[in-house]
């Protein structure tokens, strides 16, 4: 995260995305990359200016306001989570222009496709089998090592669980991975349990 605090790497990312879209010779309305100073020092005005330019470019790209961060949050390393959420949303928007997204965004897209196709299936038996499979997979994670059933969790509804007092949405990816909806993205259930300290 420290390498990002000058904002120049983020602006370089915008330039790379722009260049990739232009090479595809696709007529698109992707905004031109922001101007930036490569030699900006951490904590300087130029670093803040780079961050602000990247934020403006992200806004033009279509990144939701709730996913944007403050330039101070990047430069002073106060908002690492917001920066990551912004970068994930930039990757999602860039994918619409044909840029190959990172694995996490690709997994999200696959989950969303699965949700779309599964919502069109009206057969109740398939739906119940899917719910049972999800419940079984969730319990395998929670009851298995290293948690040994010590996770504070209860099923609230179809695909919804209360973990440590917070209701989360859980889905299966490719029938193998148990994924939890976190902010604008997804995380594995194991990692979510470890990072949110919900063990009894």
Automatic annotation (TrEMBL):
The keyword Cytoplasm applies. It comes from Ciona savignyi (Pacific transparent sea squirt). Signal peptide: none annotated. It is found in: Cytoplasm, Cytoskeleton. GO terms for biological process: actin crosslink formation. Belongs to the GAS2 family. Keywords: Cytoplasm, Cytoskeleton. This is GAR domain-containing protein. Transmembrane segments: none annotated. One of its GO terms (molecular function) is microtubule binding. GO terms for cellular component: actin filament. InterPro entries: CH_dom (IPR001715), CH_dom_sf (IPR036872), GAR_dom (IPR003108), GAR_dom_sf (IPR036534). Residues 1-95 form the Calponin-homology (CH) domain. Residues 129-200 form the GAR domain.
């Amino acid at each position: 995260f420290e390498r990002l605090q000058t904002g120049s790497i983020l602006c370089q990312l915008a330039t790379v995305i722009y260049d990739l879209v232009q090479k595809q010779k696709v007529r698109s309305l992707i905004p031109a990359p922001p101007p930036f100073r490569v030699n900006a020092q951490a904590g300087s005005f130029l670093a803040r200016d780079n961050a602000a330019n990247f934020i403006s470019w992200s806004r033009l790209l279509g990144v939701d306001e709730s996913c944007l961060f403050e330039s101070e949050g990047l430069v002073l390393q106060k908002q690492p989570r917001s920066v990551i959420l912004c970068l994930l949303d930039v990757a999602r928007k860039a994918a619409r222009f044909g840029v190959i997204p990172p694995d996490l965004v690709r997994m999200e897209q696959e989950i969303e496709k699965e949700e779309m196709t599964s919502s069109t299936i009206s057969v109740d038996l398939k739906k119940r089998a899917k719910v049972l499979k999800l419940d079984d997979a969730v319990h395998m994670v929670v009851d298995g090592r290293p948690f040994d059933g010590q996770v504070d969790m209860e099923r609230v509804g179809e695909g919804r669980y209360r973990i440590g007092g917070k209701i989360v949405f859980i889905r299966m990816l490719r029938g193998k991975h148990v994924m939890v909806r976190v902010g604008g993205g997804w995380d594995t259930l194991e990692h979510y349990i470890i990072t949110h300290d919900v063990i009894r």
